[in-house]
Amino acid sequence: MKVGLIGLGIMGKPMGKNLVKKGYDLMVFDLNKAAVAELVECGAKAAENTRELAENCDVILTMLPNSPHVKSVMLEGENAVANYVKEGTVFIDMSSINPVASREISDALAKKGVVMLDAPVSGGEPKAVDGTLAFMVGGPEDVFEAHKELLGAMGSSVVRCGEIGAGNVTKLCNQVVVAINIAAVSEAMMLGQLSGVEPEKIFEAIKGGLAGSTVMNAKAPMMMDQNFKPGFRIDLHIKDLTNVVDAAKVVDAPLPLTSQVMEMMKILHRDGDGACDHSALMKYYQKLTGEELHH
Ligand code: NAD
Question: How much is the pLDDT for 124?
Answer without folding.
Answer: 86
